[in-house]
């Protein structure tokens, strides 16, 4: 009874059923936004279900469809897939092993169906044997001497087994990481310190050290609003010891066993944002650097001007009519508004763009807008995953497995030699486990070669 | 040096090859067939040259490493690469299966794609890539994914022809299925091109590489009705004239056996590439860049679904009584899923991969 169940669990049909279930369930998951806020999903559902939307949402939430891939039942299905692979591998192992290590079969019943062609030669069976030995490296002969068998690519038979093994290891690695590791986010504002990692709903982990974001840096392609790179300059602070590091996409940083990745970023407008700019006087040649918050004033004594940081826009652009508008909350085209006031009390307001130095050109001075600091935040993801080495082993094994399984084929050749008064008749049998149409052509070619070699040998004598 | 002249030559060459392939089918003369193949191969060489030049241009313009600048980071570039893979696939099929039956079709698809892109002027734009794509894994992951997609496309063509030849009764389920899926494919591709042309005429260069980007946001019920009616019209048309395709396939000397094997061969060439290049390399890249090898983002999930459908197909062949038509149907569904992974996910669902167009 148990044996029967195990066999059913490892069967091909069960595998197909699991495939179908995973295909269906995981596709459903892509159409419902995962771990999205309740209001958002309910709003979307209302378009289809109308007033019943809250009820549908609570059903989806309770059954786990709003966080489908992390539910117990979804992981249970994956576990079933792993079990299916294990049982199937265990059951198939003896026959696979036999295929890999057994002798080349010379049983007539085995090769009979692969008959290809028969031809007579003016040669001896000795000639055929010698030729056969020359053409094929791995071959076998039965005692009576009339059947010769050769083969190539037998190891290809192990491809499916290797692939399945790799998949089992991969799933195991996934479970190890899911149980013993974590993956969460930590958001830090420029100039602030943080040590709490948020993992999913209401779960927090406090790191044994602090992360201080010194600066979030963005670079742009020339003459383009498109970013070429962005990175966070951070300090890890533990027991008053500071370690500097840069984190950017595609280049994470590891500290105390935890790996930090650049996940996302944004702008958080607040009253403490500091603007850094340089004022160059073209009269005296003096250059002064300033770091100020909005509303602060400074003097330009040579020109007898007072200046005030009046306003800031993170992404200032022009609309169709040429009016200035702010088009994004990201720092795409930061601009600083400075109001200059002369002794008479007349004022003039100017926008200075960080990306357009010419906007800071005035008759007797030049202002360079260098940096906005304390407005940007960076979200880093923090991870510990003890399953990772297992995952990579799985990757390697699967890669080897599929390549062996699909890009090699097991080819077998049998030749039956019958000697009759000075002539030999040679029957040729050819089998390839993949591709009938190409097998025929290969057999043709091989038989032609073999015939040619036999005849050549005869000529040599 | 600009890649454009070579590129235009490749496009024209493919269209010329298509005409000669058709002449070969009509006359049946071997020499004509050889000329057709040669023209296709020469155009392919031009195409390859244009691709390499663009690769270098990209690398120099943005000071990127060689491996980080393979030009397949937006819709236009991936279409060009796709056409390239398709012709390569056809050259291999001609070599291994000694049939030129697919030449006209492959040359037509590639020629249309290349000529379309060339006339719209998209080939002259070189857009900078996003920071997230700056990685050596781009080459390995993206190029192998597209090679797998192209192999699946070949299997789709063979599978459709196999189904078309297997049952010609217009009331049969198989007939309705293959005309339906083929019209869905044609309708989607046609719609994408129409959308691009509309955007070009309105000067929306940014939107050009984001097909349907407005449609789904703004579509009201009347738009949806137009889409459905349009699709049904294409289907009805194909349903009515569908047997022309199967007669043509027969005339070209294609047999059910060959088509079935070709379907399987194309899938079995594409499947390992997809497993290693698409899924595993993708996972490694995600692991290196974002810190999770698998996050169930919609694109990842759909590529897993595609992988499972093809796994289903490959295993289904070993089930008694499933050989032939039944499993071929699964190969067709697999390609629909491939297209959805390639285009649909970015349009309809949001996730990590939404940074680039693809």
Explain this structure to me?
In chain A, the strands form six sheets. Chain A has a five-stranded antiparallel beta sheet with strand order 1-22-21-3-2, covered by helices on one side. Chain A has a four-stranded antiparallel beta sheet with strand order 4-20-10-9. Chain A has a four-stranded antiparallel beta sheet with strand order 5-6-7-8, with no helix packed on it. Chain A has helices at 2-9, 12-31, 38-49, 53-63, 72-101, 108-111, 125-135, 159-180, 388-407, 436-460; strands at 115-121, 139-141, 147-152, 182-189, 193-199, 203-220, 227-238, 241-248, 253-255, 258-267, 274-281, 287-292, 297-300, 305-313, 316-318, 324-326, 335-341, 347-353, 365-373, 376-384, 411-420, 423-432. Chain A contains ten helices and 22 strands. The longest helix of chain A is centred in the N-terminal third of the chain and has 30 residues, at 72-101. The model of chain A has no long low-confidence stretch (mean pLDDT 85). In chain A, a hairpin with a 2-residue loop joins strand 21 and strand 22 (423-432). Chain A is α+β, with helices and mostly antiparallel strands. Chain B is mainly alpha-helical and 358 residues long. Chain B contains twelve helices and no strands. The two termini of chain B are 28 Å apart. The relative contact order of chain B is 0.11. Residues 351-358 of chain B have low confidence and may be disordered.
